[in-house]
Automatic annotation (TrEMBL):
It is an enzyme of class 3 (hydrolase). It comes from the Eukaryota. Belongs to the HAD-like hydrolase superfamily. SerB family. The lineage of its organism: Eukaryota, Metazoa, Chordata, Craniata, Vertebrata. This is Phosphoserine phosphatase. The active site is at D20 (nucleophile), D22 (proton donor). One of its GO terms (biological process) is L-serine biosynthetic process.
Amino acid sequence: MASLLEMKEIFRNADAVCFDVDSTVIREEGIDELAKFCGVGDAVAEMTRRAMGGTVTFKAALTARLGLIRPSYEQVQKLISDNPPQLTPGIRELVSRLHQRGVQVFLVSGGFQSIVEHVASQLNIPAANVFANRLKFYFNGEYAGFDETQPTAESGGKGKVITHLKEQFHFKKVVMIGDGATDMEACPPADCFIGFGGNVIRKQVKEKAKWYITHFDELLKELEER
């Protein structure tokens, strides 16, 4: 297991940095916001808490939550326009600095493609660097399920994305940053996991992560020291 000093060295020399999105890059949980918007907020928030704690499989939790919400295409678009995701303080500067250093930045999320792509555009991250779940709709815009073939639809999916990125781009050092159990379990294949507690602290992650931060300024400082 890498020491904290070794992890900091990996971060400073990373070819690619993968960020979770909900409660990491943005302040809220996208699925909870969508649930509130569709009038089933409390029930879905409780399911999210259980999923983030790692007590149920991600796919089972996602299926159950979406079965309650059943969002239409119109509702998803209206949520993005009326209540756009709020970026976490410091993330814009951190992503910009990583880009300046020639580091590839990816968003790897159990959230929804349409919302995550909106976030990516604010951070100058190309849509091709977004890995997220895809909602499906019927021709009339009604909810028709989600694409279960996406790796991010399953527990362990973020690790599969990182393995794919390493194979495709031959990255030597990949860092995963996130707040939840699904982020932590992506290391390995990620070379380093940084737990993030700036929006919400997940007890399991805080206790197990060797490197745990509560503000992105801490990572900016690491980059400035070189």
